[in-house]
Protein: Tryptophan synthase alpha chain
Organism: Deinococcus koreensis
Amino acid sequence: MTAVQSRGVARIHAAFERARAQNRAAFIPFMTGGYPTAEGFPAVADALLARADLMEVGIPYSDPLGDGPTIQRASEQALAGGTSTRHTLGLIKELRRRHDTPIVVMTYVNPIYAVGPREFMRLAADAGVDGLILPDLPPDQDIEIADLAAEYGLAVTFLIAPTSTAARVELVAKACTGFLYAVSVTGVTGAREGSALGEVPAMLALARQYAGVPIAVGFGVNDAATARQVAEVADGVVVGSAFINAVKNGQDVGAVADAIAAGCQR
């Protein structure tokens, strides 16, 4: 791996290492690009980036099969307001001028192909993106995307779920260069009642046999209590719907983030 290729990987891994050195799981907030509006997004993102170890920005997409109703509605609102894939990357480029926190983009494959894989990677790298989360791309079905990401210095992250077979966990874990994203429950994103752990400990124990990267857990983490449960077993905690709901309800996103980030302390 060349120095250029290692840029995103190194920055992401360093963020996890800093959190680990402070005896906590990395705090990874998510926000849909262009939500609640293109004009309002930067202030929300600034508040989250100021508290994050890494931040995940979702590219609005009309058919987000892995997302629950909260993030789906946020995507619909952003799209209706004119936010596109290119526009989202432009918004990230503006954020990068103010923040050094690693930023990863969550995107489905179709938006990448709509722009063109190489052009997408070029724009993402130019914007200062550090990595991609690819929820609908099995790593054994399209290596072009991962190879292009590496060429442009971007890390790649794939997902495992409680329903993943041992063979699938091994394949996905070995393919990740940024971090491995473990879905805490079967289904889509969104806040849920009860424990955030479920089958997570067993899933992570299996994944750690193969993963050479940190493991973050998301889906269903919506407050300090659920973040604390996940932080006990994972290297990172991903939280999304709670922040979209906070924006929708007119809450102080920074205060919500402070509370959840505190739950990441071990």
Residues 1-5, 187-195 have pLDDT under 50 and may be disordered. The beta strands are 26-32, 55-58, 103-106, 131-133, 155-157, 159-160, 180-183, 215-218, 236-239. The chain has one domain: 7-263.
